[in-house]
Amino acid sequence: MNIKRDDLVVVISGNHSGRTPAKVLKIEIGGRKVELQGIGSVLKHVKRGHPKSPQGGRVQIPTLIAVDKLALYCAKCGRGCRVAVKVLDGVKRRICVRCQSSF
Ligand SMILES: [Zn+2]
Questions:
Q1: pLDDT in tens, 11-69
Q2: Which pick of 22, 49, 77, 93 has the fewest CB atoms within 10 Å?
Q3: Can you tell me the mean pLDDT for 67-85?
Q4: In which region does residue 9 sit, left (phi positive, over 0), alpha (psi from -120 to 50) or beta (all else)?
Q5: pLDDT of the residue at 1
Q6: How far is 91 from 12, CA to CA, in rounded Å?
Q7: 91: part of which helix (H) or strand (E)?
Q8: How many A from CA of 99 to the centre of ligand 1?
């Protein structure tokens, strides 16, 4: 997987697909799914005593999106990009295949 926390990504398929980049907040389920800032949330009805809502009610819960549906956002190209890995100055860097800028 080539997506890390705090990366900017775009969703390329599914209900949440679009062109606006979103930040990766959290990576879950063994790196298979991620939580994105501002994309995908559901209202869940919870009983009293739930840690997020002690008196019960509706709680906004972020949905997780599979990493397979994401592409790293390249600021130079202004869209999602495919990524190659190259060693630059002894450090592995991710590189946009289209414009060769590194992340
Ligand atoms: Zn690029």
A1: 999 888 888 899 999 998 887 899 999 888 889 899 998 888 889 899 988 889 999 99
A2: 49
A3: 91
A4: beta
A5: 63
A6: 28
A7: strand 91-96
A8: 4
Q: How far is the CA of 69 from the centre of ligand 1 (A)?
A: 18
Measured in whole angstroms, how far is the alpha carbon of residue 55 from the centre of its chain? 31
Q: Which tokens in the block code for residue 31? A: 């790196």
Kindly give the distance from the C-alpha atom of residue 21 to the centroid of ligand 1, in angstroms, as a whole number.
Answer: 14
- Quick one: tokens of 35? 């939580």
Residues 35, 25: Cα–Cα separation, whole Å: 5
Please list all protein residues whose beta carbon sits less than 5 angstroms from ligand 1, which is an ion. 74, 76-77, 81, 96, 98-99
Q: Which residue has the tokens 């949330």?
A: 41
Closest C-alpha among 83, 87, 65, 66 to residue 74: 83
